[in-house]
Amino acid sequence: MKRVHKITYPSSEKMYVGGKIHEIGVAMRRVALTDTVSATGEVTKNASVMVYDTSGPYSDPAVEVDITRGLGRLRSEWIERRGDTEQLGEFSSEYCRARLADSSLDAIRFPVANLPRRAREGVAITQMAYARRGIVTPEMEYVAIRENLQNEELGIETHITPEFVRDEIAAGRAVLPANINHPEAEPMIIGSKFLVKINTNIGNSALSSGIDEEVEKAIRSCKWGGDTLMDLSTGDNIHETREWIVRNTPVPVGTVPLYQALEKVDGRIADLTWEIYRDTLIEQCEQGVDYFTIHAGLLRAHLPLTAGRVTGIVSRGGSIIANWMTVHGAENLFYTRFREICEILARYDVAVSLGDGLRPGSIADANDAAQMAELSVLGELTLIAWEYGVGVLIEGPGHVPMHKIGANMEAELAQCHGAPFYTLGPLVTDIAPGYDHITSAIGAAQIAWGGTAMICYVTPKEHLALPDGEDVRAGVVAYKIAAHAADVAKGHPGAQVRDDALSRARFDFRWRDQFNLSLDPERALEYYKAGRLGDESDHCTMCGPNFCAMKLTHQLRDCAAE
Amino acid sequence: MKRVHKITYPSSEKMYVGGKIHEIGVAMRRVALTDTVSATGEVTKNASVMVYDTSGPYSDPAVEVDITRGLGRLRSEWIERRGDTEQLGEFSSEYCRARLADSSLDAIRFPVANLPRRAREGVAITQMAYARRGIVTPEMEYVAIRENLQNEELGIETHITPEFVRDEIAAGRAVLPANINHPEAEPMIIGSKFLVKINTNIGNSALSSGIDEEVEKAIRSCKWGGDTLMDLSTGDNIHETREWIVRNTPVPVGTVPLYQALEKVDGRIADLTWEIYRDTLIEQCEQGVDYFTIHAGLLRAHLPLTAGRVTGIVSRGGSIIANWMTVHGAENLFYTRFREICEILARYDVAVSLGDGLRPGSIADANDAAQMAELSVLGELTLIAWEYGVGVLIEGPGHVPMHKIGANMEAELAQCHGAPFYTLGPLVTDIAPGYDHITSAIGAAQIAWGGTAMICYVTPKEHLALPDGEDVRAGVVAYKIAAHAADVAKGHPGAQVRDDALSRARFDFRWRDQFNLSLDPERALEYYKAGRLGDESDHCTMCGPNFCAMKLTHQLRDCAAE
What we know:
- The structure is a homodimer.
- By secondary structure, chain A is α/β, with parallel strands linked by helices.
- Chain A has helices at residues 76-82, 94-101, 127-132, 138-148, 151-154, 162-170, 211-224, 238-247, 257-264, 274-287, 316-328, 333-336, 338-346, 369-387, 405-415, 436-449, 469-490, 497-507, 511-516, 521-531, 549-561, and strands at residues 4-5, 12-18, 25-31, 36-37, 43-44, 49-51, 65-66, 85-87, 117-119, 174-175, 190-191, 197-202, 228-231, 253-255, 291-294, 351-354, 392-396, 421-424, 454-456.
- An 8-stranded parallel β-barrel of chain A has the order 12-13-14-15-16-17-18-19, surrounded by 7 helices.
- In chain A, helix 7 links the parallel strand 12 (197-202) and strand 13.
- In chain A, helix 4 (138-148) crosses helix 6 and helix 7 (211-224) packs parallel to helix 17.
- Chain A is globular and about 85 Å long.
- At the A-B interface, helix 9, helix 11, helix 16, helix 17 and helix 18 of A face helix 9, helix 11, helix 16, helix 17 and helix 18 of B.
């Protein structure tokens, strides 16, 4: 196992911007640029550019991250200082205690043990609860600064203040996932009035992938720009794998607890009980998972609506709970137990991501009655979760042709009381397996422009196999493109600063600056080098020396200046 | 040199569908599907699916294409039978004659010589001219059948009849590029009421790439689905390279004649004259180029409008003509000579693609006064070209953020009298060099949905280097996705048939059918195989055996059936 991991970006400095309300240091990356030198030798300085940084301590040269020890516990002090939580003497989950007691697992166990925290009885400790009480937490100030990058420095007007963050969270229009047992995570926010976020999925299955590989994927996701990370493991040792991931991930971590609950009954859906599921929720809350996908909106009455579908139910969680309902002749237990679920989540500040078990798996099934019926139940559940101060994300499709994307966003807004929408793509056609990071980035950009707050990445391997590290990179970059394109289209304050700086570098033939400002500097440099046949500081292989439009424009401007 | 080239697609049969008006055989590809077998052993046949086929004779098992001999001359008879053109005794272009006489070029010369045809004096022989006279040519019937695929067989209502094709061409709303000297090309149509088309760019530069490699790229483009091909060569032996490409390409070929004209004066822009350009036009008309990009709309008055731009002029042709105007203190010669240009083009049925020399090269420059001023001149020129019966495409941007894409389409419609729009992307952000096939596919899908008739691909190497064969594949597939997504969103008759068939195959675990119906069967199969660890006919590595949503849906349906 490689213990020490580092993330580096070219010409980049790790910065920590201080707060005004709280003593915090908000991580950012400052990309230094070279000077512009005109034909006459005149030198103009180019201001450095701040970029949003999801890489956590991995990219801090002053920190050595040893994954066998985990990341620093950034938020511990903030949490403790509030005095509304207590450290428990042991883990509350039976399963967790059994795993800890099992010495055969010592070899794969994360080496450092931390006891969990939980809200004191009767105290509301969620970011939503604080926001409603008018409190601006360090987490809220952190995200306000983080979202603005260098807007203040550049004099760019912004609507995003710590108080605005608070108000959006209080209203449920934004979620700040921040389990008190994941103090390693840097605060971030998901809401339509903030930067569009992207989620990446990793996780092993019964058929592949070890712990090392999953931690490696998590770090890669953070390197390329993943804002949150879902661990969708379904194989062996889910508990231990997750511990390694959570302890080493500086972004919020999500899961689908149902997957682990089902593994606990060896995949026998009929054997799944509320007790097992409940214990799994507590296990994961105490480990530090920041949000749970729960398929609580899929009801028995919806099942007949899927009968005529081209691709039936394509959500794993949805199909499991559909089978459970059918076998037991009972209503969805996540629906019937939803208040109990919220009570648990609230004690750790875990958010709920209401799963769309009936999302369309083909464009033929998009926006059908099944999908819309479930969405309306997600709206009901949103209000219940909010009663408990639990933040809510609403999951969305899936496969949707372009002309039906708008209606999804409208329906979500109409039914779900402004809770942030969190979509998987959508894929705008079904005909491109092997390229679904692209089919889905097209849909993701559109729906994010329309107001979707977070888009869940799709990798080139979607529909075909589990992604490897390079697939994670391809998926993350495709989704950073979609998210950023949406930020620009929405007019997010300062979003275009990076585009403009990169384009100026391009026009000046400051190749390295151009690459350093790009989403994937390594890839850009690699392609550039492969195309170089000599020294070509003022043109490239694309056009050759006689045909470089930018070179000719420079000549034209020089000519006009004379 | 590899002489014999074949294109194969799995489980596919090359079909030729007969005409009702003319004796024609319209090439299509029929993908055979396997049967669906239910859990109880019930067998259901799945109908084969026709897909649009750009691969020409390369995929016909009955034909052996030897690239040293070129493709069969499909349209020769149709052209000759019309009796309105004549075969010339020699090439009209001085330059062409000099190249033919130069024995030092024998080694790289295409081995077969064909004398050119030209319209008889005073006779209008363009598809547009025929359409206006009410004639449905074999070319028009060909595209009508081609666009419909199996709509008739499936009982899908369609607006696309041979007469509709004729009327759209007559009105200028569609272009059927069909140089009488490129009889190898299979007829296709570009217009907003037809399938969205994609163009690919290939071509060497002074710094790279031989003839072999360019022919190889052309064939790859046709294999993956490129509808037209632009040869943007700027290096040595442009004439000979193009001859190889045109003789071996079953789709219309476009060029920017200015590039070659400039090479003829060794890149000295000041030395460029009308006489050299005119001779180049005739040279290329007689070689069989189907459409020319001509930057005739960029006027002297527009140059000051670019002074404040972030990236100046990024069109090669635009920057050349801008410099020419500045050096000569003269108006754009393509503008002043536009009627003479149209006279030449009309005699060979070459269409004009009015270049957007002032397209924005960064999102900061999108939709600016320079861009819009040029677009309005393109509108004027459109009416002039139509006087001569010359088909017109209007080229569009470029780099445009999503919220400004709609305005581009609207401006084109308002200014250019319904002539088809043909855009390069647009790229919706500047920050992803190395991934610009994705940034631009997002914009291309949107603008094509809005009515753009053809989208020009961008490869991952854009801004960095010339594309190689794999980049051509990545670019073409990304653009096929964008075009198809737009076809579906526009409700093109029958467009969704392929999506639905693929999704049914996916739901049935008919993996091979799924891949065979996809845009890139080889890539899909490659990823699938890499993810297989055993026999998994009814689930995949993504979910593992306990978590396959589709498998569970099947169980659910079986359960409901009992």
